[in-house]
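Listing S7. Sequence submitted for prediction.
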Amino acid sequence: MSDDPVRTNVLTDDGAMTFQQYYHDWAATPRCAACSTRERLEARLSDEVLDALHAEDLEAVVICPANPYHGIRPILELAGMRELVRRRGRPVVAVTPVVGGKARKGSAGK
């Protein structure tokens, strides 16, 4: 999505931590109350993403596979991304481990 750093932070019952700490150090065990990505406001879409989204032959946008909270949401919240995708008017599909409202695997179930 960007060549700029965008860190996902997780607010848990045990306090705030980076997603890497939450997932690797804590094995996604504390209850996650919220995720945030502060740097997304300053980060810019990469040239490769911009080229792909402006391509004449763009048929659809597929974002996968990713957790909807700390994977897909930060991509869509990057400055200008939602607007650009909407303006193109092509189908947008996000593939996640969430099926029928329940996580199939990974930290999404936490």
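Caption to Listing S7: primary sequence and predicted structure tokens for the chain studied. The CA atoms of residues 2 and 46 lie 4 Å apart. The two ends are 25 Å apart (CA to CA).
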